[in-house]
Amino acid sequence: MRVPLLATSLLFTLLAACSTKGEIPPSKHISQGGPLKIHPGLIGQPVPAELRQETPATPTASPPGEESKIKMDPVGLRTQRSVYFDLNSPAIKADYDPALRAHGRYLADHPKARVRIEGNADERGSADHNRRLGQLRAENVRMSMLANGATQKQISIKSLGASNPKLTGHDEASWAENRRSDVVYEREE
């Protein structure tokens, strides 16, 4: 499913409908509660301030859609332990390469360190689909860390599917937070 194409098509349809001459009867209005808003994440744009949901900052994750680059602490591990994914996709975005490289190098330099990668999905889709998607996401994060020096015995993976949501809302902002893999350090050196 190509969400950007769908969102663009919907946007053009709405713009065309708005440009017609004449008055649209109230029974045909799309929204009575204000202007229709399309989540910018669907069309690849930054989320404007009026659409952002303020959530408490967590030291281990950078919410998707942030304009700033991933921040790395002196060790490079503590500030970025979540990798976020697009809808129904296990593909890792290039934005997360620096963080995964730092985790892989840390593990390579500290052979006794151990991590568990927990793959998650949003609530949409069947339980079996979400479990498989979480597994693929965790496996892709593991493969990236292995490519950067970690060893097989240092990394375990686990799929949680949709059972461990970060946000419990039923909207795009919540779903975006829940489509992730978390790097959990079980033992650090």
What does this entry look like structurally?
- The protein is α+β, with helices and mostly antiparallel strands and 189 residues long.
- The protein is 30% helix and 13% strand.
- The chain has helices at 3-18, 97-109, 127-147, 172-178; strands at 82-84, 114-120, 155-161, 180-187.
- It has a 4-stranded mixed beta sheet with strand order 1-4-2-3.
- α3 (127-147) links the parallel β2 (114-120) and β3.
- Mean pLDDT is 77; it is low at 55-72.
Radius of gyration: 20 Å
Please, how many helices? Answer: 4
The helix fraction, in percent, is 25-40%
> What is the first-to-last residue Cα distance?
43 Å
Features:
189 residues, alpha+beta, 60s Ribosomal Protein L30, Chain: A, 4-stranded mixed beta sheet, 4 helices, 30% helix
Secondary structure elements and pairings:
Blueprint: H1 3-18, E1 82-84, H2 97-109, E2 114-120, H3 127-147, E3 155-161, H4 172-178, E4 180-187
Parallel strand pairs: 2-3
Antiparallel strand pairs: 1-4, 2-4
